[in-house]
Structure formats: structure tokens, C-alpha cells
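TL;DR need C-alpha cells for one chain.
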Amino acid sequence: MNSDKTSAPEKRVEKLQIMVADSELAMIDDWRFENRAASRSAAIRSLIYLGLELTKSDPEKVSQLLDQLDRA
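>> reply
TL;DR here they are.
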């Protein structure tokens, strides 16, 4: 994602394929509709961006969330 709103969006050149559990897909789709993302791909890109930004701004919170994932 390009944080500078005045410049053109970055060209998407890499395709990622991931496997997710049904419950994860449901959470992604719920987030997509709650946040009016144009597509599932757009929702996933937004969630990735949000996660990366949170990693920079609140690393302690990210560490706690990752610990929760490890226990799941």
C-alpha cells in the first residue's frame, strides 16, 4: 500500500497463494463486509497493511497477539 495519497498506487507484481482455515476465512469475510472492502483480496491487503503498521507502532501488543496465536 502506498501511504502517500497523492502518488499513483504501486503496481501489483507478485501473486501470493495461502491456505487458511474456514474460521479464518470467515473472519476475513466478516471484516471485509464490515469495512466495505471492494474484494476479498483488497480486504486481505488492508489487513496485512494494518498488521504491519501495528507492528511498528505497538510491538508489545503484537507480541501478545502472536503469543495467543501460538497457543491456539
